[in-house]
């Protein structure tokens, strides 16, 4: 479940006329699901059943929730527009900030690049 989080957090803005925070979270909230994953070498990786069932909900107030089956994780998120980075801090691990480079960010597509070189493509639910 945490493997997808770093990938959710980084995406580059594809449309400069739109507010990136609104593209991530919508007017109130937006639910994203994984559609494709690649490893550091760019090879496509099969999404596990857990990854396929995982949902990440970004709220416009800067909070997020990750849902996997009946389990939930919560925290705070921020989009650093100048660096094109998605920063995530979990409520139960506030001393750790996950930072992802956002390679693409559109209303219907987000591609996050993790520090290990892997990428995750997300689409709205």
Summarize the structure.
The protein is mainly beta. 12% of the residues lie in helices and 51% in strands.
Key traits:
125 residues; mainly beta; Lipocalin; eight-stranded antiparallel beta barrel; 3 helices; 9 strands
Give the topology, please.
Layout: H1 5-8, H2 20-25, E1 29-38, E2 44-45, H3 49-53, E3 55-59, E4 63-68, E5 71-80, E6 85-90, E7 93-106, E8 109-113, E9 119-124
Antiparallel strand pairs: 1-2, 1-3, 1-9, 3-4, 4-5, 5-6, 6-7, 7-8, 8-9
Characterise this structure.
The chain is mostly beta strands and 125 residues long. The chain has one domain (5-124): Lipocalin (Beta Barrel), CATH 2.40.128.280. The protein has helices spanning 5-8, 20-25, 49-53, and strands spanning 29-38, 44-45, 55-59, 63-68, 71-80, 85-90, 93-106, 109-113, 119-124. The protein has an eight-stranded antiparallel β-barrel.
Helix content: 10-25%
Low-confidence stretches: 9-15
Strand element count: 9
Please give the alpha-carbon distance between the first and last residues.
17 Å
Reported for the largest beta sheet, the result is:
8 strands, antiparallel, barrel
Strand order of the largest sheet: 1-3-4-5-6-7-8-9
Task: Quickly give the CATH architecture.
Answer: Beta Barrel
Q: CATH topology, anyone?
A: Lipocalin
Query: What is the H/E order?
Result: HHEEHEEEEEEE
How would the global form be characterised?
globular
Average pLDDT number:
88
Give me the number of helical elements. 3
**CATH C-level category:** Mainly Beta
Instruction: Work out the radius of gyration.
Output: 13 Å
Proportion of strand residues: over 45%
How many individual domains? Answer: 1
Structural class: mainly beta
